[in-house]
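Thread: Newbie trying to understand structure tokens

Hi all, I'm a second-year student working on a class project, and my supervisor (Dr. K.) asked me to get a predicted structure for one chain before our next meeting. I've only ever worked with sequences, so writing a 3D structure as a token string is new to me. If someone could post the tokens and maybe explain what I'm looking at, I'd be very grateful. Here's the chain:
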Amino acid sequence: MSMIHDLEEIERTVLTTDPSFRAIERAEMDRHISKARQSALLASKDAFLLSMMRLLALPRNGHTRLIPNNAISVLPVRFVSIGTAIRLLDARSGYSEAIGSELISINGVPVRKIEAAAEAFLAGTRQRRRVIGAILFAWPGALVRLGVFSGGGTINYQIRDATGRISELVPDMAELVPGSAIYPRNEHGKADASWSPKTYLETRDFGQRGLLLVLPSFFDPGETDFSNAVCEAADCVRSRPDTPLVIDVRGNTGGNFLRALPLIDAIREGSDNRRVSVLVDKFTFSAAIVFVAILKHRLGARLSLIGEEMGDDLTFFAEGGTLDLSTGGAVVRYSSAFHDWAEGRIDGTTPKEIAAEIVPVGSLEVDRIWIANSEDVEARDRFCREIFDDFHA
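---
Reply by user tm_fold:
Sure, no problem. This is what the structure looks like when written as tokens:
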């Protein structure tokens, strides 16, 4: 199989069927297809993948994109967007003292300038681009395309630690590793790229103050563990109808929101005086956002959102499927269905089971900004106590 075959498969399966492309001029698509074809004919894999990323980013629909992780090699440094900063969360042992430091520049080029150049290759909202774009900082082929690296010599990362001390990381260019080893396909923001939830529900009882429910993922390949966790959470919530709640869906990249509806029902059935806060961040995506939207519609002013802007808007295209390309394992995610949780609209592509649940939410702006690494349990618990104290004030 060749890259030309991959391109033709994308044209045939994605561009003609994905409804998010209906608003894109054919001439613009053809221009990017031509560039991708040139890269394919030259057998330049990185250039081809980046051209495909550029093409699939045109609709600005985050669910439609090329995922290069399995097909590329990166330097052994894991960068993650925390708040508005790019931070080093993992690296080879020789760089352990630099973990947590903020990335300032690469080869003298400021991070913000690199991010601006990378926007055209990244699909979705500003927050989603921050999430999925971090891999570009470790991918030499991308840094060449972004005008940061010549393709020869070294890549110098200038970083700043918590004390303000500035230093440089200069990884060995011979130590490239598979992109998927450091950057997960569904970026969750954890230091360990291989992280997966050990449980679909974590509870933390703060006594009379309140109850914390942590829902790390809605994606359950076995289709039973998550449903069981939702039933357990619903029973717990029903047993304490007056207890204030904090629900943590930070880092929840989605799954099947329909399976979470029993928990929403249980929360809504509680006392009209029950206060609820939901913790969200830029790694909250897709079905997790829909969960928050329905909860907001049901509870109104009794629900507060705390954290940062989430990874998707309320109007998007989703469902669809994936294409496994022959180009070293790259994957294309494409969409097939329209969702509009802002105005409650549907169209002929919206699945019936989803159309039955869509409600007009308006917007989901955070009521209080709070940015912390979702792995910092102590900071989370301290903050929950503060939230519960405010509820009881």
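A couple of things are worth pointing out once you decode it. The first strand starts at residue 65 and ends at 67. The chain has a mean pLDDT of 95. Feel free to ask follow-ups in this thread.
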